[in-house]
Amino acid sequence: MENLKNKTIGSFVAEDFRTAAVFSKYKIDFCCKGNRTVTEVCEKQNINADALLENVFEVLKSENGGNIDFNSWPLDLLADYIEKTHHRYVQEKTNVLLPFLDKLCKVHGANHPELFRINELFIGCAGELSQHMKKEELILFPFVKRMVKTKDTDGVLHKPSFGTVSNPIAMMMHEHDNEGERFREIAALTDNYNPPADACTTYRVTFAMLKEFEEDLHKHIHLENNILFPKAVLLEKDFVEVE
């Protein structure tokens, strides 16, 4: 038990994503801040570490139920999955949420002025994530796939223009942190996505979609921060790069 207290939150979730539900229940950030140990998190948030780990063990002992073991996937497949599943999700949902939030501001903004800040935050999120995903799709992910292919064929890895894969990864993780902070503010402004008593159907649907969007973003960031990125850094170390 004591040894597990020094294990990072992200590594628990990387090994079994079902544990994410436990950490979410305790309001522990397992994606952007998944590099913290159980001890660090529990001390900072005044959580009983033994109780937390007992909850985690209950999940781990239960039947898997078809949980996908992303940790075992080859990196090129994982990069494709993130792009085709989570990047597409972001694109599709932002196209729906932006007009919904704009409508809520016009109809309900007078009685609920917090909607203007929520709308401002999500507009920023949509714009930043769009640029963020393009950088991954055009720069980082192609290099990860090239590393996998080069290793499989015993080829030579040519040094990329960005120097080392750690450089774009550091940028992506910083941007992940920004979105995590943005959504923490959105969650606070929406009372954790609980619509007010006078909310219309559009109001309720929008809050439900925002909640789903944040949950998907958590999984999206987790797959990158806790699995894809650290494994890409380790993979690069297997090569002797040439200019």
Automatic annotation (TrEMBL):
In terms of one coarse class, where is the protein primarily found? cytoplasm
Cross-referenced PANTHER family, in alphabetical order? IRON-SULFUR CLUSTER REPAIR PROTEIN YTFE
Cited InterPro entries: Hemerythrin-like, RIC_family
Q: Enumerate the GO terms in the molecular function aspect.
A: metal ion binding
Q: Name one GO cellular component term.
A: cytoplasm
Source organism phylogeny: Bacteria, Pseudomonadati, Bacteroidota, Flavobacteriia, Flavobacteriales
Keywords, sorted A to Z: Cytoplasm, Iron, Metal-binding
Any idea where this protein resides? Answer: Cytoplasm
Q: Please report a single Pfam family linked to this protein.
A: ScdA_N
**Span of domain Hemerythrin-like:** 84-232
Quote the protein name from its UniProt record. Regulator of cell morphogenesis and NO signaling
Keyword DNA damage belongs to the record = no
| Gene3D superfamilies reported for this sequence | nmb1532 protein domain like
